[in-house]
Every structure is written in structure tokens, then in C-alpha cells.
Amino acid sequence: MALTELVPLPGGTFRMGSDAHYAEEAPQHERQVAPFAIERHPVTNSQFAEFVSATGYVTTAERPLDPVEFADVPESDRAPGSLVFTPTDGPVDLRDWRQWWRWVPGADWRHPFGPGSGLEDRADHPVVHVAFADATAYAEWAGRRLPTEAEWEYAARGGLDGAEFAWGDERTPGGVVLANTWQGSFPYRNEGWGGTSPVGAYPPNGFGLVDVIGNVWEWTSDPFTPRHVPPGAASVDRGERADLLAGAAPSRALHVTKGGSHLCAPEYCRRYRPAARSSQAEDSSTTHLGFRCAADVTG
């Protein structure tokens, strides 16, 4: 198996979250994580292809919607597919995400933009269109797991406790772009990659990890809460928050994703920071959602 190199981290105490940005990042608080290891970069298309070849796994986006859970959806609309970002022709109301997202039948990890698209020249790009179950299945096959939110944020900070970004306090120090985020006017003009970039196209953080900011959002194992749960109020270090999901339909349960993506732009989504977090339903899959694995450290 051509798995990503694991980078062992010592763990420790750091300031998690932020009181200066979006409400769900608050309150900033002290958090402690045990030693662990995390993959140097997100799982790539070639690595995910090896997993599928070895197991015959079929991703969520490749299966039709459950007719019981989605009884109100017409049968013709329950075909396999996923959400695909589509630039607009010009400025639009940024409060309406439906202006630039399309449900595309036949879009999946092999066909990121729908039927007719493929992975040519994208072997080393992060795999996308992976739902929570897909990421978890890969991690189990690899003998690893998804990182917790606290582990992910600790790793993304690269030892810069409290810094605004993974590299310091300036978004583009000296005018240098240090992550694959939207460069231009969202959602119609992008002077950057215009999509995912090969892993490692930008410099690593202080722990030697790449793409912790931008490129693709990354799944964590933690259920999402509207605000941080202070330590002591729940078992927060390993994502054990089942009580917070009481009553939620399993496939619609929300999990935390971290890191932002190539679609993050100052005027729309300022979530290209370690403290930033977003919620995703477990069955969500899009052109800007991927993952990386973690592992326990023994001995």
C-alpha cells in the first residue's frame, strides 16, 4: 500500500478556537492532546484508487439516494451524484450558495466534474467527493483513523500557538500566497488554481505538514456543535459526543471539517485558518471535500 507518510507529533496544550471570527469557533480555550501521528498530506486520488481496487468499495456518491430516507425526492433525482462547484458569469448574491453549486448526476471521485471528466493529470491531487463513511472506510483499510478536531487543529498550527494562520499572522506575508485558496473575485474570477492543486504545491507548516490550509476541506471524527464544548463538559478529546447527536438521523449527522478549501475567499469564506471549522452532513460529498488520516502513537 502506498500510504502517506505519518508525521509523529508530541501532543501538548494549545489554544484552540478563536473569539475573533465566526461564532462556531468560540470560545477560544485551552486544549490538551496526547501524542499522535498524522499524515503529511491529504489522501490522493491514486491512493484512494488503490483502496478501491483492493476492496471493491463503492462510495456514497456512487450509490443512489436511499428511497426511504429521501422519500420526498423524485426517483429521477435519486440517481448517484454529488455537488460540483460551477463558477458564475459575474457577481451574484453571496448569501445564496445555490448560485455556484450544482447537483450533478454521475459526479464522484473518479469523475470530479461529472460524466466525461476524469483523473488524468490528477493522480497527486487530493481525492474529493468522499463522504464521512468513505473516509472512515479508507482509514480502517489503512490501519489508521480520522483525526479528532483537536488533533487536526493542533497539527495545522504547526507549533505556532495562537497564530492567525498556519504560517503566522499575515494571510499573504510579503504578498506571497501560501495556500490554495481563491485568488480573485468569488465566485466568478479565480486567478489561482481554479480547483484542487497537487498535494505539496505550497510550503509545509512547522510540523512538515502540507495543505492543512486550503485545497480541500478535511473530515474529522468529531460531531459538530454550534460552539466549542469546554473541556470537562463532555469527553471532547476523542470525539465522544454521542449525547449531542441524540435524535439525529445517522446519515444526516453533522461532523466537523477543517482547513478551508480552494473556494475560500476573503469576501465569502474566511475559513483558511487553523481555528476555522465547518459542519458537513455525513453523507455530503463535494468537489472541495477530502481527508487525511491519523494514528495513535504506541510505545
Automatic annotation (TrEMBL):
One of its GO terms (molecular function) is formylglycine-generating oxidase activity. InterPro entries: CTDL_fold (IPR016187), Sulfatase_Mod_Factor_Kinase (IPR051043), SUMF_dom (IPR005532), SUMF_sf (IPR042095). Residues 4-294 form the Sulfatase-modifying factor enzyme-like domain. Transmembrane segments: none annotated. It holds the Pfam family FGE-sulfatase. PANTHER family: FORMYLGLYCINE-GENERATING ENZYME, SULFATASE MODIFYING FACTOR 1, 2. This is Formylglycine-generating enzyme family protein. It comes from Agromyces binzhouensis.
